[in-house]
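Justification of computing resources. Each target in the renewal requires a structure prediction run like the one illustrated here; the chain below, 160 residues long, is used simply to show the kind of job we budget for.
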Amino acid sequence: MEYRFATVADIPALARMRWAFRAEEGELPSEDEATFVARYATFVAAGLASGAWVYWVAADAGELVAQMAVCVVSGVPRPSRPSDQWGYLTDCYTRPAYRGAGIGSALLARVRTWAEGQDLELLLVWPSDASAAFYTRAGFGPADGVAVLPLRAYDPPPVA
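Resulting structure tokens:
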């Protein structure tokens, strides 16, 4: 299994997996798949180009089988840190035939290592009922709504 950042060339496959993911969740589309893919491609290409979005993928023999996206959110500057960012983790999906093999866990571990290397304060995710246990096992908590994975300790400024 290859784990890597997604590229612009991956966008059509990412879009198809997003379509499948939302259909699996029971969403009824308001547009046809081709229209959605075009809209998704525009959004993801702009996000990748700006660096606001980072997509991670798992590929088996070149075929994408899992994906996770992180939107890097800049916090309001504070005097105690040169930068303050956190990550919104979303669009996490593994194709059904590949589930239960540890691929999602391995992909999330790489996302976490990358996020720590970027000095993100935390990763935040809104897990579904079906995915809550997955995120709990990975250290996120609590799982009743928004789940948070702290990546570094809050460092308040020293008191003078």
